[in-house]
Amino acid sequence: MATLPEGVKELLKSGHNVWIATIGEDGWPNVSIKGSGTLLDDEHLFFADIFSKKTRANLLHNNRVAVGIFNPESKVAVQVKGAATMIEEGDLFDRVSKQIEDLQMGLPSVKYVVRIDVDSVWDMSAGPNAGERLA
């Protein structure tokens, strides 16, 4: 497992949407935007899944994911790769469900929370370090 660099943790704390890439049983990729994606701790990310049928089906087939995070103001972009675990009960599920409910946006209930164990972090920003491993 890899530890997220401080800059990536700050990027996640700043509330940017994340893009989750999964692979289906048919071999085709699926990318889904998540407004709830954020930092759990130094080695884990998480997001709430409310709508994505394909994401769930793909994770049941293959739990490996890539997460894209981009700050348009600073032009910082990173990719986090890792293994996902779907959580349907317990403290994390309850906490995230309450956070979504407290938004009062009329969203459906959280189906499950996906915890991502960070395996690697990559610089995706334009420039001389693009494509380099950060962690």
Supply the key terms.
alpha+beta, 135 residues, 7-stranded antiparallel sheet, Pnp Oxidase, Chain A, 3 helices
Question: Can you describe what's shown?
Answer:
By secondary structure, this protein is an alpha+beta fold. The protein has one domain: Roll (Pnp Oxidase, Chain A). Helix content is 21%, strand content 40%. The protein is built from 3 helices and 7 strands, in the order H-E-E-E-E-H-E-E-H-E. The chain has helices at 6-13, 53-61, 91-102, and strands spanning 18-23, 29-34, 38-41, 44-49, 64-71, 76-87, 112-123. It has a 7-stranded antiparallel β-sheet. A hairpin with a 4-residue loop joins strand 5 and strand 6. The model has no long low-confidence stretch (mean pLDDT 91).
N-to-C SSE series? HEEEEHEEHE
Please name the fourth-level CATH homologous superfamily.
Electron Transport, Fmn-binding Protein, Chain A
Our Rg estimate from Cα atoms comes to 15 Å
**What is the terminal-to-terminal distance?**
9 Å
Share in helix: 10-25%
Specify the structural class: alpha+beta
**Assigned CATH architecture:** Roll
- In round numbers, the mean pLDDT is 91
Tell me the overall shape.
Answer: globular
The percentage of residues in β strands lies in: 35-45%
Number of helices: 3
Low-confidence stretches: none
Total domains: 1
Brief summary:
The chain is an alpha+beta fold and 135 residues long.
Ordered list of secondary-structure elements with their pairings:
Blueprint: H1 6-13, E1 18-23, E2 29-34, E3 38-41, E4 44-49, H2 53-61, E5 64-71, E6 76-87, H3 91-102, E7 112-123
